[in-house]
Every structure is written in structure tokens, then in C-alpha cells.
Amino acid sequence: MNLNKCERCGCFYVTEGNVCPSCAPKDTNEMSKLNNYFTENAAPITINELSTATGISQKNLSRFISEKNFEYKQQIKL
Ligand SMILES: [Zn+2]
Q: Domain residue spans in the chain?
């Protein structure tokens, strides 16, 4: 059995994905917050500003942005 380490809380779990089952809803929630932000705001933004605007931690933002299906990469100022 393979154990995965949750990227949010650091606990170990056996299900698929980057986060444990108890953190998965938080991830989903923040992902949709992020998508809503970019639907309403077209201007490029830094991760730091995005964190302030959405209330999502920079660590989690970096993780969301690096996912291959993230649609708004061009709007992130690096
Ligand atoms: Zn977790």
C-alpha cells in the first residue's frame, strides 16, 4: 500500500491526489475561488497580490498554478 503525504496538512493517506480526503474540499473550494478571480479579472497579477486578493496562501497558489490543467498561467506575473 502506498502512502501519500498531504500537501496541505502533512498527514499521510492512501487515496489519489495531492491532498488527504479531509483537505480535498478545501482544495476544491480554493480552486473555484481562483477560477472565479480570473473570470472576473483579466490583468496579470503576482502570486503575492493574488494571495491577498483571494485569501489563498502563496504555497497553495503555487501548487494550483503548477498543475498542468491550470488555465490562467499567462495571467501570473513571475
Ligand atoms: Zn490534509
A: 24-77
